[in-house]
Amino acid sequence: MKSKSAITYLQLIVVGLICLQLCACSSTKSATEAAMINPAPDPALLAQADECYAHRAERERLRAGLELIKRARAVAPGNYDAAWRMARLAYTLGDQSQDDKERDALFREGIEAGDVAVRVEPSKPEGHFWLGANYGGLAQTEGPLAGLSDADKLRHEMAAAQQLDAGLYDGSTYMALGRLDLELPEWLGGDRQRALTILEKGLPYGPQNSMLRLQLAKAYLANKKPDDARKQLSFILAMKPTADYLPEYEQCASEARELLKRQ
């Protein structure tokens, strides 16, 4: 006959095994529930949207990319990778548009998606960057006074992205912040000298960033340093652009030629 202590020991083992099984079931259930709450988007849709963005010089490709990413977000509205990509596509399409109503609608779509990205992954820089870019686009459509709040939000989001990754997009946070200080009137917070300081600080992160160099040239002109401005403009025209930024380079090169003609 087994002793009472032996029976108690066996009972404890059985109870322990049952608890482990219940915990495993609970863990599996939690993982399943989490997947249902935050489903992953179709990787193929993200890849196709990226391919469309790579051909962003063609507006129809951008539109197609935006529709693809909307399909991805319909299944996974809270997914970070889908959200920041939508913010990127919405901003780029809005920036190219000549229609104020379309620009306004696209930037607002971008803000919605960017806000989701920032809330889901606040410690990743892409969401902050593209949210800030859309705020900047909206500020331009609204005008200086109405857009001041959005300009402040642009500054906040770009600063957050910069803190997380100073070299993001070859120093483009510095380009955005410097441009903001150049374009805002001084009585609304713009600062030409600060713009120059920011852009010079960003140059080591993006020596081949034609957009950054163009804004730096403008900052030199605003601070009455035409010789330094000419150096930047000449550098843009002489540089070999990277394939990833070819559309932006062509636009910058065209503007650089016009600025040089005026010198």
Task: Summarize the structure in short.
The protein is mainly alpha-helical. The chain is 77% helix and 0% strand. Mean pLDDT is 88; it is low at 1-7, 12-20 and 22-36.
Describe this structure as you would to a colleague:
The protein is an all-alpha fold and 263 residues long. The protein has a domain at 41-137: Serine Threonine Protein Phosphatase 5, Tetratricopeptide repeat. It is built from twelve helices and no strands. The protein has helices at residues 4-37, 43-54, 59-75, 80-96, 100-120, 125-142, 148-164, 172-183, 192-202, 210-222, 226-238, 246-262.
Low-confidence stretches: 1-7, 12-20, 22-36
The CATH fourth-level homologous superfamily of one domain? Tetratricopeptide repeat domain
Look at the structure and give the mean pLDDT: 88
Total helix count? 12
The CATH topology of one domain: Serine Threonine Protein Phosphatase 5, Tetratricopeptide repeat
Second CATH tier, the architecture of one domain: Alpha Horseshoe
For the sheet with most strands, the description reads: none
Compute the number of strand runs: 0
Question: Could you tell me how far the N terminus lies from the C terminus, measured between alpha carbons in angstroms?
Answer: 107 Å
Portion in helices: over 70%
- Secondary-structure-based class equals mainly alpha
What coarse outline follows from CA principal-axis ratios?
globular
What Rg, in angstroms, do the CA atoms define? 25 Å
The arrangement of helices and strands along the chain is HHHHHHHHHHHH
Roughly what fraction of the amino acids lie in strands? under 5%
CATH class of one domain: Mainly Alpha
